[in-house]
Amino acid sequence: TFGMGHYQSPVPLVTNAPLNHAIGSPGIVSSWTEWQPLKEVIVGRCELSCKPGNEPAFEAKLKSREHALFSAEPGLRSDEAIATGQDELAGLVDVLEKNGVTVRRPDVVDWSKPYSTPDFEVPCGNTSAMPRDVLLTVGNEIVESTMSWRARFFEYRAYRTLLNEYFERDPNFEWTAGPKPTMADHLYHYDFPHEARGGESDNVRSELAEKRIYIHTEAEPIFDAADVMRLGRDLFVCNSFTTNRKGYDWLRRRFNKRGLRVHFLDFPKDTAPMHIDVLFVPLSKDTVVLNPVRPPRPWVERMLRENGWKVIWGVSQGLPTPPLSQCSEWLSLNVLSIDDKKVLVEAQETRVMDLLSKHGFEPIPVPLRSIAEFGGAFHCCTADVRREGPLESYFP
Ligand code: NVA
């Protein structure tokens, strides 16, 4: 048993054995789109979540000087926030299970410990509440994102028990990871205009967004999985505060080899873009929701329509997010599809529900507001493991 522990390989441990994908229970990990019928999903958890320290990428996401003051003390989030978040996630788990979805949870990780690498040190980590940022499921593969905040360097650790389990049980599961960046100083624009420092940053940031200049440099590839939307044979990747062009290129090379097309998107009206899942939200094989306040470049809508897609312009109730949240009222669009009709929508977002009903969808209201403090809503706090259905092309 040298070095193997109790591990029983689902395929024979003989180097010249023929590949036999029928061995074991294949296909636990398999998800090609955002809308095929959901069978198994990871739902994050809030325990021991922290407010990160003021590292460059985090500071650039703070909305104002007041926001920065709120965030001044890094370390554990309040007991109350954690308890409320946990309750909301329990409600979400319940709804998913009632709809026949197997729900898995990450490990409890103590994010409050300081750590350092040869290149940086931070007072604490972040959270296990946002698996969508960390895990990119493309068919039978899960890619661990590179991440780009120092406080998120080790966030993959919350999912390692699950990924090891899938690796043991599913002989077809491909487990990969983006190249871990050093996150040394060369990865950040130290002169980037920060709203938290006051001053006239808005106009400057608009000009920078138009030129696709964000907080990160191109020193190393970086991507968060939540900057990717999966539409079968086509992946759409958002250039943002968390995904640079080198990160896009890494994804393009990786998935071109697997026969997929990988498209580059950006949303120039978003002056702090982070994650595609309030900007470009596909709900079925021919319907995508776009954000009217932060639209993509004009070619995107044209390309969608020319390929037979219906574009719906999203709405929001405009309700405030918790004071410690870096998200906007457009979390209204951060929905999760159970299939190509049923969509989980935040319970107070009645305008979204009306809009989706009008277009033939069946919104299911679920209370999930406080989780915004941890970084998102339905799409963010989940990660696909399995959706039923094959790889198809939806762009002729
Ligand atoms: N950057 C987003 C949140 C992403 C889940 C927002 O603008 O609200």
According to DSSP, the number of beta strands is 19
Helical content band: 10-25%
The top-level CATH class is Alpha Beta
**What's the domain count?**
1
**Regions with little confidence, pLDDT below 50 for 5+ residues:** 20-25
CATH superfamily: L-arginine/glycine Amidinotransferase, Chain A
| Rg from alpha-carbon coordinates | 20 Å
Relevant terms:
about 400 residues, alpha/beta, L-arginine/glycine Amidinotransferase, Chain A, 3-stranded mixed beta sheet, 9 helices, globular, binds norvaline
What does this structure look like?
With 396 residues, the chain is α/β, with parallel strands linked by helices. The protein has one domain: 5-stranded Propeller (L-arginine/glycine Amidinotransferase, Chain A). It is 21% helix and 19% strand. The protein has 9 helices and 19 strands. The strands form 7 sheets. Strands 4-1-19 form a 3-stranded mixed sheet. A 3-stranded mixed sheet has the order 7-8-9. Strands 10-11-12 form a 3-stranded mixed sheet, with helices on one face. Strand 7 and strand 8 form a beta hairpin. The relative contact order is 0.17. About 2% of the residues have low confidence. The site of norvaline has 11 residues, from loops.
SSE blueprint:
Blueprint: E1 38-43, E2 50-51, H1 56-59, H2 65-70, E3 75-76, H3 79-98, E4 102-104, E5 115-116, E6 121-122, H4 131-134, E7 135-138, E8 141-144, H5 160-169, E9 174-177, H6 201-210, E10 228-231, E11 234-238, H7 245-256, E12 261-265, E13 280-284, E14 287-290, H8 298-306, E15 310-313, E16 336-337, E17 342-346, H9 350-358, E18 362-366, E19 382-387
